[in-house]
């Protein structure tokens, strides 16, 4: 299966595994200390995997090389029920950047009524839907990779009732340029999450700010346009700029574009609104080659994020989900693959 990126076989140890936690999407950056820092979403295995919407926190781990393995150092921020913050319930999906002496962490936060769920039961309840439906994108900044982090007092954008992005502002993928301007892709849907089922097709929108510290406005009132696929069902973007054009990897939810459900799509754009498929269009598949000579096709390989060094992607990070023989979710961890 031909992919836009070719990868070296990688270690089964992954970038980050934590036996007592569900580990999900990670974003890596080289810190002022010359080491690599990985910002990751995690939540306790004392609750079910799907409880992420009400239990996730963001942690920072460190390694001497991009491939890891990364060692946990601290919880950056998480559940703060008495804070009165818009993101007091849970935080998730970190996306880390750096500009002119400041680290800029994009993330999603939620809030919800009632106590924090604390059981291993299926969480697809009204409380779970209430949490999911409050997903908004925030920004935290710090002068050091070690913090302290200052979070904005409000999300950078709000959904629009009656529009294609009426539900949420989620899964931010920011591209911070040399002048401090930011283009950010976000995920949304036209309906709120109903109890017990998923809300339908996800699309990506695009917004821009002349500087990361200034307000964001939408570049288009409509979702991004993928040439040849007017009704795309995609999520989990990662965005960067080559100096000539925007490039993106994202997840093909149903496999309508690349032929494998939940594999990666590779696209490029001049304006971040109109997107063209790469040649080939698949950025990565769910099949991973390991350095012990084995190969595994995982049920889910999600949250693609690149490490960009000297303007080029060098490593791909993914969240990996594994299931047991009965089809139950058994583990989740973070994979890193070095690009050839």
Number of strands: 22
CATH superfamily: Glycosyl hydrolase domain, family 43
Give me the secondary-structure category: mainly beta
Question: Radius of gyration from the CA trace?
Answer: 18 Å
The CATH architecture category equals 5 Propeller
Largest sheet: 5 strands, mixed
Strand content: over 45%
CATH classification, class level:
Mainly Beta
Helix content: under 10%
Describe this structure in words.
- The model has no long low-confidence stretch (mean pLDDT 94).
- The chain has a single domain, classed as Glycosyl hydrolase domain, family 43 (Tachylectin-2, Chain A).
- The protein has 340 residues and is mainly beta.
- The strands form six sheets. Strands 13-17-16-15-14 form a five-stranded mixed β-sheet, with no helix packed on it. Strands 1-2-3-4 form a four-stranded antiparallel β-sheet, with no helix packed on it. Strands 5-6-7-8 form a four-stranded antiparallel β-sheet.
- It contains two helices and 22 strands.
Quick overview:
The protein has helices spanning 52-55, 126-132; strands at 21-30, 36-44, 57-63, 71-77, 90-99, 102-110, 136-142, 150-151, 170-176, 182-188, 203-209, 217-218, 225-226, 234-241, 246-252, 264-269, 274-284, 287-289, 295-297, 300-309, 312-323, 329-338.
Supply the key terms.
mainly beta, 3% helix, 340 residues, Tachylectin-2, Chain A
């Amino acid at each position: 299966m031909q992919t836009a990126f070719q990868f070296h076989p990688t270690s089964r140890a992954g970038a980050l595994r934590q036996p007592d936690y569900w580990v999900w999407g990670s974003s890596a950056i080289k810190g002022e200390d010359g080491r690599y820092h990985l910002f990751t979403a995690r939540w306790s295995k004392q609750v079910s995997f799907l409880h992420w919407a009400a239990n996730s926190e963001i942690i920072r781990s460190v390694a001497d090389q991009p491939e890891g393995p990364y060692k946990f150092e601290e919880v950056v921020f998480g559940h703060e029920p008495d804070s009165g913050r818009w993101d007091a319930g849970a935080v998730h999906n970190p996306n880390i950047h750096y500009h002119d002496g400041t680290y800029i962490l994009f993330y999603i936060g939620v809030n919800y009524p009632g106590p924090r769920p604390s059981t291993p039961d299926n969480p697809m309840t009204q409380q779970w839907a209430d949490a999911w439906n409050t997903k908004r994108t925030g920004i935290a900044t710090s002068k050091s990779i070690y913090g302290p982090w200052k979070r904005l007092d409000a999300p950078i954008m709000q959904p629009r009732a009656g529009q294609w992005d009426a539900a949420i502002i989620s899964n931010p993928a920011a591209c911070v340029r040399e002048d401090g301007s930011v283009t950010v892709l976000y995920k949304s849907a036209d309906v709120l999450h109903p109890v017990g089922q998923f809300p339908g097709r996800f699309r990506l929108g695009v917004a821009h700010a002349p500087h990361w510290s200034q307000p964001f406005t939408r570049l288009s009132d409509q979702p991004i346009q993928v040439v040849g696929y007017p009704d795309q069902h995609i999520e989990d973007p990662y965005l960067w700029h080559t100096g000539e054009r925007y490039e993106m990897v994202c997840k093909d939810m149903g496999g309508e574009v690349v032929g494998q459900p939940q594999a990666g799509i590779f696209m490029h754009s001049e304006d971040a609104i109109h997107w063209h498929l790469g040649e080939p269009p698949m950025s990565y598949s769910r099949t991973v080659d390991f350095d012990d000579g084995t190969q595994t096709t995982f049920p889910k390989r999600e949250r693609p994020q690149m490490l960009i060094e000297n303007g080029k992607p060098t490593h791909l990070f993914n969240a990996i989900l594994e299931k047991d023989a009965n089809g139950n979710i058994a583990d989740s961890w973070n994979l890193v693959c070095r690009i050839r």
